[in-house]
Automatic annotation (TrEMBL):
Signal peptide boundaries: none
Keywords: Cytochrome c-type biogenesis, Membrane, Transmembrane, Transmembrane helix
Entry protein name: Membrane protein suppressor for copper-sensitivity ScsB
Record's subcellular location: Membrane
Domain Cytochrome C biogenesis protein transmembrane, chain residue ranges per copy: 3-214
Organism: Vibrio maritimus
Superkingdom per UniProt: Bacteria
Pfam families from the UniProt entry: DsbD_TM, Thioredoxin_7
Major location (coarse): membrane
Length: 400
């Protein structure tokens, strides 16, 4: 399980949740290309320490909830509107800083003192590491679910050990730079192109902030959420205009309108050539675990999808597999019942259902049928083949 934790933590680095923070880290690497080997080592060691510390804080929070008798799981902090607001504000501030909309100016005396002490903002690298971990929690990855499920059902010592190894696994790329600081020289030399790169990373972080804000719709409603997003976008455009001039404001507005309109036009023109238009019109029923045995006894096949709005892996499974043929057509068959458990906000029934299968996070998909009334659990990352095979095995249809 410790090995699974290492691999799961390592794979988190390539999940889309962590990408904006990796962009910030890449920018700091290139900016510090002239640093000494010691400074490079310490900066990457600080990032690694931030990642591991954040995982240990998660372990502590989950331990406290477990001792208090609460139901726990991976990513449950995204079920809190307060946490989502905090993350949205932090990512928005990071985005504004990368876009050059504001800079924190220290007093000249303090700047001189820091320069003489050789400080290179190791605390900033530490915070980047912690932030990367928090943004990684909406994502599930291979090996991660197994390790977390074992940890949350094991002793407190084992829970802390596994979460520490998750942190070490996610830190492996940064630890490589700590051991081999000369790898920094492989990156391009600093130049004017870095300003464009910062703008790109700033835009990515702004989009992350807007995505986090969109998750508030489950708490405050769609209208209020859209209003907040509109205010943030307009304010960002206005600030860009003030910093970079009216031309930048007009250009940014024009590009946004062009991108939105162009996307709609391209989508409408090419929709017929898609394998299946991405429209979720499946007859989803609310998850009712007690009704599944009776449905199976009637000869039905039941496909259960436990998901959450903040779960990136869930959305990838939905768009890439569930709503695409051949799975989409198979789930529309008359003998197939589709059930969905929503874990976006706290739900004791959904949490209890997950834990009955030894799962403590989403996505979780399982197929029941006359030949497998106990259910066939599917992997975290779905493929068309494994879903079709499970559906056929559950209802007794031979696979080709």
């Amino acid at each position: 399980m410790l090995g699974f934790a290492l691999l799961g933590g390592l794979i988190l680095n390539i999940m889309p949740c962590v990408l904006p923070v990796l962009g910030m880290k890449l920018n700091s690497i290139i900016s510090g290309a002239g640093q000494s080997r010691k400074q490079v080592r310490l900066s990457f060691l600080a990032s690694s320490a931030g990642i591991i510390t954040s995982f240990l804080l998660l372990a502590g929070a989950l331990s406290a909830l477990k001792m208090a008798g609460h139901m726990i799981g991976w990513g449950i902090q995204f079920q809190s509107s307060g946490f989502i607001i905090l993350m949205a504000v932090v990512t928005l501030l990071f985005a504004a800083n990368l876009l050059g909309l504001f800079n924190i100016q220290l007093p000249s005396s303090m700047s001189t003192w820091l320069a003489t002490k050789g400080d290179h903002s190791y605390s900033g690298h530490f915070i980047q590491g912690m932030f990367a971990t928090l943004l990684a929690t909406p994502c599930s990855a291979p090996f991660l679910g197994t390790a977390v499920a074992y940890a949350l059902g094991a002793s407190y010592v084992q829970l802390w050990l596994i979460f520490a190894f998750l942190g070490i696994g996610m830190s492996i790329p940064w630890l490589m730079f700590t051991v081999f600081p000369g790898l920094v020289k492989a990156f391009p030399k600093p130049g004017a192109w870095m300003n464009k790169l910062k703008l790109m990373f700033g835009t990515m972080m702004l989009l992350t902030s807007l995505w986090l804000t969109s998750l508030l719709s489950a708490f405050i409603g769609t209208t209020a959420t859209v209003l907040i997003i509109g205010i943030v976008v307009i304010a960002s455009f206005v600030m860009v205009g003030k910093v970079y001039g009216r031309k930048a404001f007009i250009l940014m507005s024009g590009l946004s309108v062009f991108a939105l309109g162009g996307g709609l036009i391209v989508g409408s023109v090419t929709a017929d050539s898609w394998s299946t238009p991405i429209v979720d019109d499946l007859n989803w029923q609310r998850l009712d675990a007690q009704s599944i045995p009776s449905l199976v006894a009637e000869g039905k096949t039941v496909f259960v999808d436990v998901t959450a709005d903040w779960c990136i892996t869930c959305k990838a499974n939905k768009i890439g597999v569930v709503l695409q043929d051949p799975v989409y057509s198979q789930l529309q068959q008359a003998n197939v019942v589709t059930m969905r458990g929503d874990w976006t906000t706290p739900s004791d029934s959904v949490t209890g259902y997950l834990q009955s299968y030894g799962r403590f996070g989403v996505p979780f998909n399982i197929v029941y049928g006359p030949k497998h009334p106990e259910g066939i659990a599917l992997p975290v990352i779905l493929t068309s083949d494994n879903v079709i095979q499970a559906l056929n095995a559950a209802n007794g249809t031979p696979n080709d």
